[in-house]
Amino acid sequence: MGEEVKDKILREVRKDFLQEQLLSGKRFDERALDEWRPVEVQKGVITTAEGSALANIGGSKVVAAVKFDVMTPFPDRPDEGAFITNAEFVPMASPGFEPGPPNENCIELARVVDRGIRSSEVIDVTRFFLEEGKVLGLFLDLWILDHKGNLTDTAALAACAALLDTKLPKVENGKIIRGQGTQSMEMKYKPLTTTFIKVANNFLLDASHDEEYAKDMSFTVGTVEGMVSSIQKSGQGGLSKDEVMNCVDVALKKSDELRRYL
Amino acid sequence: MGKMPGIVLFKDGKRLDGRGPHDLRKLHIEAGVLEEADGSAYVEWGGNKIIVGVYGPRECIPKHFSDPYKAILKVRYVMSPFASADDHGRSGPNRRSIEISKVLKEAFEHVVLTNQFPRTQIEVYIEVLQAEGGTRVASLTAAAVALADAGIPMRDIISAVAVGKIDGTLVVDLGKNEDNFGESDVPIAITHRDKEIVLLQMDGLLTKEQLEEDIQAAIDASEQVYQEQARALKNSYEKGERGKLKM
After folding, report:
1. Mean of the pLDDT values across residues A248-262?
2. Least Cα separation, residue B29 to chain A (angstroms)
3. Which three-class secondary structure state does DSSP give residue A109?
4. B131 contact residues in A (CB cutoff 8 A)
5. Which residues neighbour B190 within 8 Å (Cβ) at sequence distance 6 or greater?
6. Mean pLDDT confidence for B70-97
7. Average pLDDT rounded to a whole number, residues B69-83
8. Number of domains chain A contains
9. Is the CATH number 3.10.20.880 carried by domain B17-239?
10. Cβ–Cβ of B127/A52 closer than 8 Å?
11. What are phi and psi of B230, to 5 degrees?
């Protein structure tokens, strides 16, 4: 549908209002700048998948599902399996989402979540080798069902919970026997993301949909326990080195609060 | 369709999962599970988990699709790639889901008072998150609740159920194995007050008498489906809270 004129006007009005609020140190919902909205995680919601979870941050809802298939390995990595992440902005999630192939925001989200998990090395793709020419592929699907802002952190939380819920499938004669896996993924970390938006030189953690309308840019820090595993600066605005380091500092602390729900 | 060697679907008056011929699988519906959508519903029906979001009536895009006399309905039924117990599927619509979307849309065109909203569109988005046979009737049942939850005026509410034949016996609400290996599958959608049939498909091989029996069995069973739809809507109004999704 694209952005209508009324959306553009609304964005400007919201921006003005939020900036005014922020001068007195307040957000739309009276939260502190570094405060999460209510968080809920439910694991094992999809029994047709090898692992799954529903995550809810402040009303944003994402179902993550992990499924394995037998596939041929990539030619340059013949003894490794694959890890493939795909996000879908399901059109019911927002009046602005349209049916059709994933747009750039959707692809960015999938890739940011993917990078955070991949670089933390929690998925050992060498365990996915079956026999010559046959490996397991791990498909991580992120289904965005309700958009109340901060989809990246909600999707990353759902993804991490789904991976923790995952059982490696039982394989016999090069075929997966569904529903009989017992081995867990043995993850050494819990990779998550922490996203800030910048509005008039303030950095807001876990922005709501309304706040996102007013953002100059957003900054996502992927973390594991005590370390940074990925970063994505997104949107037009810029930020200083000090601001980057400050965000990383807050992200390392605040992501641990999310880990308690896992 | 076709026999699966070595599996008896019906024995001693009981089906594979222990149900009698006229028993429905466990059915639970929640209305208003999403915050952003104008109306929504979540259904768990046996092993099916389906979520529906409704938007509208709102401006019709693209404009040349709009009808100066009524709202147009758009229904999109899709199955997620993780919905089946088999391999990871592909996302997005395919030939099967496009046909299902079409027959579901036509069922709702019969009851939604589209003439009250000229030049607009009403969108119904159906996402099958987990499938275990009978997804089209479960989708339709949930979509009816989501439309009502969105406050869209309808002449009647639609309830749907599949009826079929396994090992020569008429059974109601087929599960996945009964659907795949039974002898016939008849999904039917019925309006509650007028008992009009607004969706009817069939495959398999039935006599005229068996088909009539099937339709009557569906009309009878749809009453139970209706009761759950009504309960879900009432419950959502009584509670007055939106956006709570438990799977």
Report:
1. 97
2. 16
3. helix
4. 48
5. B158, B159, B160, B196, B197, B198, B218, B219, B222
6. 95
7. 97
8. 1
9. no
10. no
11. -65, -40
> Which ipTM did the prediction report?
0.94
pLDDT digits (tens, 9 = 90+) for A122-169: 999 999 999 999 999 999 999 999 999 999 999 999 999 999 999 999
Which structural domain, as residue segments, surrounds residue A67?
5-259
A156 Cβ neighbours under 8 A, 6+ residues apart: A112, A113, A116, A117, A191, A192, A193, A222
HSE-CB at A24 with a 13 A cutoff on CA atoms is 8
Residue B51 in this model has a pLDDT that exceeds 50? yes
Listed in sequence order, the residues at least 6 apart from B6 whose beta carbon sits closer than 8 Å to its beta carbon are none
B76 interaction partners in chain A (CB closer than 8 Å): 91, 99
pLDDT the model gives residue A14 = 80
Q: Is A45 within 8 Å of B247 when comparing Cβ atoms?
A: yes
Every domain of chain B and the residues it spans: 17-239
Q: Which residues of B touch A139 (CB under 8 A)?
A: 81-82, 88
Interface of A with B in 80-109 (CB under 8 A): 86, 88, 90-95, 99, 101
Question: Rounded mean pLDDT of B38-51?
Answer: 98
Q: Do B49 and A69 touch (CB under 8 A)?
A: no
Residue A28 pLDDT greater than 90, yes or no: no
Q: Are A40 and A56 in contact (CB under 8 A)?
A: yes
Domain of A236: which CATH number? 3.30.230.70
How many angstroms separate the CA atoms of B40 and B53, rounded?
Answer: 4
Maximal C-alpha separation, chain B:
59
Taking the C-alpha atoms of residue B221 and residue B39, their distance in angstroms, rounded to an integer, is 26
pLDDT at B75: 98
> Residue A62 in contact with residue A158, Cβ under 8 Å?
yes
Q: Which of A137, A150, A173 is nearest to A38 (CA)?
A: A150
